[in-house]
Structure formats: structure tokens, C-alpha cells
Amino acid sequence: MDNTSLLNSSLTQTMDYAAPILFAALGGVMSENAGVFNIALEGIMRFAAFFGVWGAYISGTPWIGLLWGIGIGIVIGSLHAYITVKWAGDQIVSGVAINVMSMGIITYLLELIFKTTGYSPPVPYFGSSVNRIHIVFIENIPFLGAFSNLTILVWFAIILTVLMHFMLYRTVFGLRIRSVGENPYAAETLGINVVRIKWFAVIMGSIFAAFGGMALSLGTLSSFTNAMANGKGFIGLAAMIFGKWTPFGAMAASLLFASAQVIQLLLQVAASGFAKLIPLGFYLALPYILTIGALIGVVGRAVPPAADGEPYKKE
Amino acid sequence: MILKKLFSRRKEEYWWMTIAVPLVAILLALITGVIFIKATGRSPLKAYKLLFGSSGLFPSPYWKNHFAEMLLSSSMFISTGLAFSIAFKGGLFSIGAEGQFIVGGIVAAYFGYAEPFAGLPTILHLIIIFIMAMAAGGIWGAIAGWLKTKKGIHEVITTIMLNWIALYLIEDWLVTGPMKANISTGISGTPYISATAKLPNILPGTRLNISFIIIAAAVFFTWFLLYRTTIGFEIRAMGYTLVFGMEAPKASGVNVNRRIIQTMFISGAVASLGGSFIVLGILFQYPPVFEGGYGFDGIAVALIGQNEPVGIFLAGILIGALRTGATSVQLAHIPKTFPSIIEGLIVAFIALQELIRYLIMKLIVPKRSKSD
Question: Where are the domains positioned within chain A?
Fold first, then answer.
């Protein structure tokens, strides 16, 4: 493998790795800008990863799986919104409930539907070379070539980041969402329907997180494993905070984390001499240490939306 | 009335509401569980009979054993539940119990088998182990507190990262490297701890050991710390004024930064107790792969227990009971993760407590006021 293709494939790998985290982080950005905590990202990813595979298994096409995943995202988002917006329930409690339920329900369904403990049979997925988006003419150009062989989900993650930035900061609707997150009572006096905006943001955020789950089970892997999402949702949560509750910030954070992960893998392979003596654990822990290091070095105090996490009760 | 005194601290119109809400939530969760089992074509009655029959909560043929197992696993859930709530009371959202738990476990394993300590009398040996494990877990927690106060990094990020760092450093370095048992012994994981490091049994014929007594004491100390000491008062003051940037405690001279680090230390130390219990009382070594999850279940336990020490104690026993009965539900062709569905549902209904309060008020309270 020559240097260009190694570079490009590493970058592709980074983006593959970053996409699920980015989706989760964007889900969090969406929901928390409207003032609703969402620590259920992990659970939603798990639900969607499973339902996506289930849909693809039954229909034989990942596209139907995608629809199933979006569907479960809407269901879970509605549950979270019903608890936290309709009944002004504690948002952390609701999120934890979804996470805990995801563990039980999915294992249950896995056994019910696939008669297995821990994994599903392989299904058609977006990562297979037929379903990837090939852009042949940039294949051999350094850097650009990394974009020549991505899955549709990675492209969607990139587009979604840009769209969300535009929506949040360049449209009236985005301004309304942010005003609800900053000060719902002031927003209400301006005639904004706070409750409806919160419902919308929570459900949209949940759908984005659902895409994150599918990026795992239908994007990089072709099946569901019981370990999914294996903490990716929480890393997404961290990426959201790291990125200061903005779409591009979340993207930068996800990419930073993913590249640390890829560098770690490359180092493991390339290790020679003294580096061979370093135990595996240090390599595996490196991305997490680097993330803390990056936060110490670069980023200042993160300020969440002012009314983030506060239940809103109409006066 | 003791109960009234314990719970009337909250500004409730009816003091019993704090007890009624979790009970109704548990009831509703069990009912939803019935619907779920029914919908998937299995027998709910059989499932619940098996689940509660062997949970240790109710008399059954092997009650003594189930009861012991229930308390044994409860101690772990109570420890991580307390850890979450201590940080939470101080306005800190710590997801770090998972990492602090295993840090406590590995340190307990080391001081359990390490040569120089192996000859000590049990009491002395255990005291040393617990001090070391709690110090290590506490420091693991305090790192997050320190990073928050000195560098302004949100504790959610650092605790998540520290969980993974702990996991990888322990499982892919310590347990497979410096702390690995001698190959000739044929043991995978760390060596077994010496006999003097095993937690003394308190119910002959079962595995029940003093871990439950220790955790009951920890519950009391947490309550004492939070409600009877100045530090506890200041911790709670930080939590109450979190949305105002903790200005009030700052203005009244509380060294908020120092308290944050201390709170995280205490929280981590309590979480590490659970890790020590599992190593010293159940596994007797640190295995190559640790079945985790206690940290995250601890959040659920804390929330079901309304973040009050006494509530967490009871919620921990409930979750411990559900987990103890979990293996038996497989006889009704239901996966053993079923209890975590119930657990999640309970938490969901706790989140819906406004609805529950509303329903209770509607159903019960008007009748009462009429009869008065």
C-alpha cells in the first residue's frame, strides 16, 4: 500500500468511525439547544441499531432498515418528550430510563426474533461495496481520495452538520429553538409555542441519534451485536459538550476522537523496538487520554444553553 | 414518627408522597411488564412467580440462599447508587461510578494477594485493603473534580473518559501484564486473594458476607454527612444553587472548588466499595473480563431512591432482588435481562412522577378532605 492510499484509507476509516459519534452528538445538540437534556442517546442508538437490522433482515434492503430505525427513533423521542415536555419530568431520569430499558428490551427481542443471545445474522448493509458511494475520479488524490468510497450514512452526517448549523443560526426557526433553550419564559412572551418546539427538537434529536445507531449496525458492521452501542452514545454526549453545543463543534470533536482512535490503531501496527513494550491497554486508552488532553489545552469553559435541563412548566 | 421525620424534609404538601411515588412507579412498571410479556406470547404469571419466588424477597424453598444472594448483590448497587447521589447532591453529574468501581476492584485484588500483607490478621488486612481501594477510587473521582475546577472541563466528559481509561488500563494492561497470575497456576486474571482478605461470612450455609453491613453503615454515614455536617450542608447548597452558578454558597464563603473535588473524592470512594465487595466477597480475584454495568445501574438505583440515602438503600435491595430472580425467569423462556426492562420502566415512571402525583391527588386526596 503506498502512502497516498494509506492516508486516504485512514481518513476514510476516521470518518467511518466518527459518523456514529457525530450523529449522536448532533442529536444532543438539537435537543439541548431547545433545553432538553438527552442522555438517552446511547439507548436510542441501541434501539435503532437493532431495529435497523431487523428491518433490513425482513425486507432484504438496508433502506427499509433505515426507515425502521427512523421509526423507532420517533417512538423513543416521543416517549422522552412525553415524559419531559408534557409532564415536565426530570430529563436525566427519563434518559436513564430509556438507556436501562434499551438493555433489557433489545436483548429480549434478540432472543425472540433471531433466537440468539448477543448477535443478529448478517443483513444487507450500506457498507457493502455495492451500496457505497464511489467517486472514481478523485480516488488517487491525497486527502480528497478519502471521500471516494464513503457510505451514504457518512455523507449524510456531513450534510446534516451543515444543514443544522444553517438551521440553528441562520433561520428564524433556529433562533426560536435556541431562545427556547436559553429562556423559555421569554420565548413564550414572544408568542413562541415552547411546548411544540421542544417536542420537535426532542424527536428530531432522537432521529439523529437513531441514525448514529444505524451507522454502526448498517454502516460499519452488517449485523447487530449486543455490545452495541458500546458507549458511543456517551462519547457523542461528550463530543456535544466538547463542541460547545454547536453542530460544527460536535463535528470537530467527533473527528478528533475518531482520529485519535485511528492513530491508536496505526501505532499498534507500526510499533517497533521500545514501542512494542508498551502494553496494549495504553494504546486503547490513548484516544480518551488525548480527548482530556485536548480539552485541557485548547478549549475553555463550555457554557450550555441557559435553560438546558430545566423542566418547563407553562405559567 | 420516624418515617415522617425522614421524608418531610422536602417541601411536600403530603409527606407520604415521597414514599407513594416510587411504590406506585414500581407497581405500574410491573403492570407494564405483564403487558410486555403477554404481547410476546409468554406467560406473565409464570414469569413473575419465578422472578419473585427466587428473588429473596418472599419465602420460598431456598429462601435462605436467595435472601443471601439478594443482599450480596444489593450491596454493589447501593454503593454505586450512593456514589451517584452524593455527586448529584453537590450539583455534579458523575457518570464515573463504573470506572471508580473497577479501580476499587483492582486495588482490592492487589492488596488482597500481595505478599507483604498476606500474613496479617483478617481485620487489619481488610482495613488496609478498604483504605487503599477507597483512596484509589476516590482519587479516580477527584481527578474529574480537579479537572472541572481547574480547567473547566465538564464532569460528564471527564467521567466518561476516565471510565474507559480505567477499563483499558486494567483489562489490557494490569490484568494481562504486571498483575497476571503465574501461568503455572492455571488461573486467568489476577491471583486469588489470601484467606485473610476474604470478607467474613455472616450467614453460614450461604455466601452472605459483611459487605451488606459495611454498605448499611455507608448509607448511614452518607446520610449523616449530607444532613448533619457542615460539609454536607455546603455540598447540598452547591446542588441547590447550581443553576445560579453556585453564587450563593460562593458569596457565603464556601470554597466551592475545594468542595467539588472533595465531593467527587467521596463519591469515587463510595463507588470503589462496591468493586472491593465483588473482588473480596464473590470472585476472590480480578477476572480477565469484568462483567460491568454496576455503575450505570447505580444511576437508576439513585433515581428510584429519589437520591436520598434511605431511598437508595431500599431501591438497591429491590434491584438486587430482581437480579437475583433473573436467572430463574429463563425457565419461563424469558431472557434473564428481563429484570432490567422492569428496572428501566420503574425509572421511567419515576420520571413521570408529575403524572403519578396528579393521579394520586385525584384518586385519594379529595376523598380525604371530605371526611375531615
Answer: 9-128+146-297
B281: its cell numbers: 466477597
Q: Which domains does chain B have, with CATH numbers?
A: 20-42+334-372 (no CATH), 68-328 (1.10.3470)
B-chain residue closest to A290, CA distance: B161
Residues 6+ apart with CB under 8 A from A93: B303, B347, B350, B351
Residue A291: list chain B partners with CB under 8 A.
157, 161
Q: Chain centroid to CA B315: how far? A: 9
Gap between the Cα atoms of B68 and B206, Å rounded: 6
pLDDT tens digits for range A273-314: 677 778 888 888 988 888 888 778 765 566 778 888 778 877
Query: Under 8 Å CB-to-CB from B201, ≥6 apart: which residues?
Result: B207, B208, B209
**Joined grid coordinates for residue A40:** 438517552
Please say if the pLDDT value at position B214 is more than 50: yes
Q: Cα–Cα distances in Å, from B172 out to A22, A156, A277, B318?
A: 27, 35, 13, 34
pLDDT score of B5 more than 70: no
Per-residue pLDDT at B14 exceeds 80: no
pLDDT average, residue stretch A90-108: 89
pLDDT of B316 reads 96
Q: Rounded to whole angstroms, how far apart are CA atoms B297 and B282?
A: 19
pLDDT (tens digit per residue) in A166-186? 999 999 999 999 999 999 999
pLDDT tens digits along B128-150: 999 999 999 999 999 999 999 98
Across the interface, whether the CB atoms of B350 and A97 are under 8 A apart is answered yes
Q: Is the domain A9-128+146-297 a CATH 1.10.3470 member?
A: yes
Nearest CA to CA, how far is B274 from chain A (Å)?
Answer: 20
**What is the distance between the alpha carbons of residues B149 and B90, in angstroms, rounded to a whole number?**
13
